[in-house]
Inverse folding.
């Protein structure tokens, strides 16, 4: 640690100690972690904040990010801010930062040497605007996973799939036996699945060229046509009346053996753990849908809306530092299904899925940006709506879905 950093660390721990002497400060924390696995994980954060001398006041918002994000943002804009809030790394907080509504926590980041300790660099970069740090990244969550129930396949006399092609090949036989080959939830989970299939079958490079560089030739070209055609062929396995409202219900169908597979982010792993199922024995998790092992840099971050009370500001900064301590990172991420933000932690208790994720993380070429790091949320919502309509309505052709997709990419603000 250089002299400058050492001085910053000293000043920071002095301010934390002063805050520690004062009585516990209530911190209302909003998040959308309400499924079984998510609740188990966030309880680790609450425990750590309470242990640090402050008091976590839980502000869980049911119904996942789509519901929670607008509530969170309008509360901050409307002058009724919480002390801390979950959001995803990306563009969601840009307007709040521009309006000067979020606390600058650069001092905490400098004191904790986050630039060197936290990885991958994309997550801290997402928190940084004009050289100032506004959020603390707490995990790396990737969306490209297929989850399968081994017993369901084995009972049907089929080898558990190792990739998307195996999954597609096994689907008719499962359906003939009255087993739902694929479970799906309405809304953003459909978008997530379509994007995963795009990445798996058209390749990461093409996916990034479309979402980041807005390459319309690729978006409308044969590589993507192939994927829309592949999706048209599987939508018969999840007719609209079989789609469930929430992502964790769709994962639950796989856990209960009522469906064979689901495509969902690695947070699904938390649900399997709560159900006491063992990765590699009871279920499989296939990164990159088993086609190419890849991870995107999704995840979660916490922002701290500005507060006039200096005790709250001090407690907010203490919370930011607490969430990335080694012990808290391990306890939280083991339950969440995500990868910890730091490499210098004890991961001896990691399950198979986390091990697979960590291995991919070591090969940086297999790590690519999260969609909301490349494109605005409005455009993403339009893409989700288009993909949902396409998957739920067999009369919508692959060509029509692709044309609509190209149009949204074309009009997305740069
Ligand atoms: C994501 C979030 C994850 C997970 C998921 C489903 O936005 O990053 O932590 O909880 O939503 O709720």
């Amino acid at each position: 640690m250089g002299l400058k950093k050492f001085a910053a660390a000293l000043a920071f721990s002095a301010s934390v100690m002063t805050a520690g002497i004062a009585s516990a400060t209530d911190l209302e924390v909003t998040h959308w972690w309400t499924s079984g696995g998510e609740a188990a994980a966030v309880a680790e954060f609450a425990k750590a904040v309470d242990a640090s001398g402050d008091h976590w006041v839980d502000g869980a918002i049911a119904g996942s990010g789509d519901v929670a994000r607008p509530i969170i943002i309008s509360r901050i804009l409307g002058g009724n801010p919480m002390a801390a809030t979950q959001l995803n790394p990306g563009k969601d907080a840009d307007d709040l930062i521009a309006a000067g509504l979020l606390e600058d926590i650069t001092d905490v980041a400098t004191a904790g040497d986050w630039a060197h300790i936290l990885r991958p660099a994309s997550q801290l970069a997402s928190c940084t605007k004009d050289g100032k740090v506004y959020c603390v990244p707490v995990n790396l969550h990737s969306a490209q996973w297929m989850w399968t129930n081994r017993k369901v396949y084995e009972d049907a006399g089929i080898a558990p799939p190792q990739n998307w092609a195996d999954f597609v090949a096994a689907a008719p036989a499962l359906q003939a036996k009255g087993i739902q080959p694929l479970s799906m939830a309405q809304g953003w989970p459909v978008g997530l699945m379509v994007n995963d299939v795009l990445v798996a079958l058209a390749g990461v490079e093409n996916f990034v060229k479309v979402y980041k560089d807005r390459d319309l030739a690729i978006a409308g070209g044969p590589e993507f046509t192939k994927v829309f055609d592949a999706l048209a062929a599987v939508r018969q396995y999840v007719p609209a009346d079989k789609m469930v409202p929430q992502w964790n219900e769709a994962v639950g169908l796989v856990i209960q053996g009522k469906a064979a597979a689901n495509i969902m982010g690695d947070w699904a792993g938390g649900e399997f753990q709560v159900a006491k199922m063992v990765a590699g024995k009871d279920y499989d998790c296939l990164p990159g849908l088993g086609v190419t092992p890849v991870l995107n840099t999704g995840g979660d971050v916490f922002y701290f809306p500005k507060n006039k009370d200096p005790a709250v500001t001090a407690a907010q900064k203490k919370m930011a530092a607490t969430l990335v301590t080694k012990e808290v990172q391990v306890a939280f991420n083991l339950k969440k299904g995500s990868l910890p933000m730091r490499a210098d932690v004890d991961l001896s208790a990691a399950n198979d899925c986390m091990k697979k994720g960590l291995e991919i993380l070591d090969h940086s070429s297999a790590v690519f940006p999260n969609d909301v790091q490349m494109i605005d949320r409005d455009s993403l919502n339009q893409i989700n709506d288009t993909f949902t309509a396409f998957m739920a309505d067999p009369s919508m052709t692959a060509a029509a879905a692709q044309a609509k997709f190209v149009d949204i990419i074309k009009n997305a603000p740069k």
